[in-house]
């Protein structure tokens, strides 16, 4: 009798433990963050969260990039999406920020372009200040100072499309006697073989 009683108690205990192991977790444990996500609390499962939000486990798995029908191991503190709102909001925000950045860049470019005033077409010659014994460097351009005072920043677009930004820092013999000519400082090795050309000139400042 004692042996049968012990066996009976053993099976009763086993059944009780099975019931606890397979009892469903609380469905209301997850904390709703109010943005389409919940924060996992101890005792939560994908089944309990899905049931609490009226969706299937497979739909919840798919929404969170999990393998459908896989073993969904989650931990307290983990964030789980319960609808597409959170992901959609993030995507929309990223897109809006990208568009805003692009618009700002475009506006900046347009402003820079608009601030340049076209002065007209000029004859362009080249000289190397170093060859003439000058230490003025290659950032300058000689011009008729009654047309372009010293310090005027010019954007010179050559006939071949080359763009040069130069600051008026001198007046040479050619430029002084020819108001429609600019003498651009450039190393001898870089001076174009054609020597003299024409260019569209814009005043930057």
Automatic annotation (TrEMBL):
Keyword Cytoplasm: no
Entry keyword set: Signal
Matching InterPro entries: LysM, LysM_dom_sf
Domain LysM: 36-82
SMART domains: LysM
Pfam families, per database record: LysM (PF01476)
Keyword Signal assigned: yes
CDD domains given in the database record: LysM
Signal peptide: 1-23
Region called Disordered, residue ranges: 86-110
Protein name, entry field: LysM peptidoglycan-binding domain-containing protein
Species in which this protein is naturally found: Agrilactobacillus yilanensis
Taxonomic path: Bacteria, Bacillati, Bacillota, Bacilli, Lactobacillales
